[in-house]
Amino acid sequence: MRAQRPSSAAAGNLVLALLFLWVLGWRHVTAEIDIGNMTALQKHVSFFDRNKDGIITPSETIEGIVAIGCDYAFARDFAAPVHAGLGPKTSPKDAPLPHLSIYIKNIYKGMHGSDTGALDAKGRFVPAKFEEIFSKHAKNRPDALTSLEVKEMILANRDPDDPQSWAAPIQEWGLIYGLASDKNGYFHKDSVRGIYDGSVFVKLEEERASSQSTVCRSLSFRSTDNISLGGKEFCFHLRDQLHNEAIGDSLE
After folding, report:
1. Are 224 and 151 part of one and the same domain?
2. What is the pTM of this model?
3. For residue 99, what is the domain's CATH number?
4. Is a pLDDT exceeding 70 seen at residue 168?
5. 250: pLDDT confidence band, cut at 50, 70 and 90?
6. Distance of alpha carbon 243 from alpha carbon 224, whole angstroms
7. Which domain covers residue 196, as residue numbers?
8. Nearest Cα to Cα of residue 116 among 153, 166, 165, 170
């Protein structure tokens, strides 16, 4: 009589149990960072360092994204590629495996191209480049961006020699625009400024905590291309629009 093979469910449970034990066995590490001398980029990401130990774990990023108004499933799907990309780049050589946590001290090593230039190579804020965002792209109002202007800005900043950097600005700007723009679809200058030092995240968390609302599920606004969308849906809509335009350009 042949021995029965273990079911896939049993095998899956075994794998999960082993992973759980592995996680429990990780040694807790910290990464010291000089809070008083943090760069704008370090301040930007430190919002997601929920226990303020200098290291952002995937679960902390998920918690932070939920805190600013997104549902758990979206936060999980958003955090996964972020940590897969930034974890290995920012982890020191002696960091415990797997290198999925993001080390704030080294966050500048994870900077991508096709951006606004408002942060320099070390993650420091560049005021002149920030002002250029509005002098070049804010056509309806001098102190705010519409959804179409955000889209035009992303396209204008694309580095043709670095197509791998095109996706990140779509996700970043699409999500924050969907969360922080007003009910008329305007993304105000002070909110845009808050992206770079993370203060917009703090503001969003406070607003969501006081209203107990979940923006990515419930907020609906009228974007300036006349499409009513929630924050999460706008991110996907913008991504699809720019992807289709890129295909169209390549065929011309």
Report:
1. yes
2. 0.74
3. 1.10.238
4. yes
5. very low
6. 19
7. 127-252
8. 153
